[in-house]
Amino acid sequence: MSWLLYIIQCSDGTLYTGITTDITRRLKEHNSKKGAFYTQNKTPVMLVHQEPMANQSQARKREAEIKKLTRKQKLELVGNCNVA
Prior knowledge:
Strand content: 25-35%
Number of domains: 1
Helix content: 25-40%
CATH class: Alpha Beta
């Protein structure tokens, strides 16, 4: 099972970071308001960044690292993906 770290942009311009083994399913969950509580009222969401991870442990560690970043640092990480 391959893990992915992902960052999505919510409809209000905020960024959400998570991990999954199936990015297509996870994006559908977020957009159908069955994903994380944070994104339920911020749909639609758009994938702006993803990183393949070797295992769940590595994915969780990377997720924690990214969640500690400032918004400016996160925007630098995702690059210019029409993220405002």
